[in-house]
Fold:
Amino acid sequence: MLKYLIYISAGYLIFKVIKNGVYLVLENIQKPKELKETTELVQCDQCGSYFKESSLLHHNGKVFCSEICKQEFSKK
Ligand SMILES: [Zn+2]
Structure:
């Protein structure tokens, strides 16, 4: 009976290690994807500089890097 208990605990430990290993692998696969999405650069319609899309302002179908650029563009 003790023999079976050892097998079960050993099996459980192996299962845990594999599970953590798979989790780590999946995490490493997902990380570069996230980075790629957040570092996608978009050009400001006023000054022409490139910025992260998340930091840009959207206005009338145009994108601006700052409130200043947005105002400069409206002046035209
Ligand atoms: Zn700009």
